[in-house]
Design goal:
Blueprint: E1 6-13, E2 18-25, E3 30-34, H1 41-50, E4 53-58, H2 64-67, H3 70-77, E5 81-84, H4 88-92, H5 94-100, E6 113-115, E7 120-123, E8 126-132, E9 141-145, E10 148-152, E11 155-156, E12 159-160, H6 170-181, E13 189-192, E14 198-199, H7 200-206, H8 208-211
Parallel strand pairs: 3-4, 4-5, 5-6, 10-13
Antiparallel strand pairs: 1-2, 2-3, 7-8, 8-9, 9-10, 11-12, 13-14
């Protein structure tokens, strides 16, 4: 019997260099996709190559660079799409987001379910908890799991999410980071929506937004 090991695969894609993730349980081949991104071809190739059964598509938030690939991912996998209710207006307005940036996007398939703070999600034997972390967008969430956090655009290696987009707020974002991420152990691996992996300990001691070197967004 294969060992029940949690597999993490990252795929950087699209014009915004966004990170999409596949989380998989090696024993059962159950998987979830997180933020399919603008170009999910690499992510979906891994689904086929690895023989993964995708049980759900989890969205950290509904900015365009994280969700443009949802139609293709849902078509291939038939998996339910889960999003926090506070970001559903953003999700519904993806065609308008695209127009602001000078390109076209069709409407996306409606979410199949809602994420909420404290919700427990399972991937085989592995437990993840949803943490509502607004500030970058009203419905941003992070997924905390075994030794890791999938942080979307809340916290990056050396930086934080933008707060100059509709629904963003610097003070709210910093409160989310302090309440939900800096309470994690220092060795927790940070998988962000853009850029390199880090750890909570590294960000706690070196991230200028957390150490106070940068005080305004």
């Amino acid at each position: 019997m294969p060992v029940s090991e949690l597999v993490v695969r990252k795929f950087t894609n699209g014009r915004f260099a966004q990170n999409s993730y596949l989380l998989g349980d090696r024993a059962s081949r159950a998987a979830v996709l997180i933020d399919p991104g603008e170009d999910p071809r690499g992510l979906l190739a891994e689904v086929a190559r690895g023989g993964w059964h995708v049980e759900a598509i989890w969205l950290t938030h509904a900015h365009i660079d994280h969700v443009l690939g949802v139609p293709e991912a849902k078509k291939l996998t038939s998996a339910p799409v889960l999003l926090h209710a506070d970001d559903q207006p953003l999700y519904a307005n993806v065609p308008q987001q695209a127009a602001w940036m000078g390109f076209d996007s069709p409407p996306l398939p409606a979410p199949d379910g809602e994420l909420h703070d404290g919700q427990e999600l399972r991937l085989g034997p592995h437990r993840f908890v949803v943490r509502h972390t607004p500030g970058h967008s009203p419905g941003s969430v992070c997924f905390t799991g075994p030794g890791m956090v999938i942080a979307g655009d809340v916290l990056f290696s050396g930086s934080i999410g933008r707060t100059d987009l509709p629904g963003g707020d610097f003070g709210t974002l910093m409160r989310s980071i302090h309440a939900h991420l800096l309470t994690l152990s220092d060795d927790t691996v940070l998988h962000a929506g853009h850029g390199d992996d880090s750890t909570i300990g590294i960000e706690r001691t070196t991230n200028p937004f957390i150490t106070g070197e940068v005080r305004a967004g």
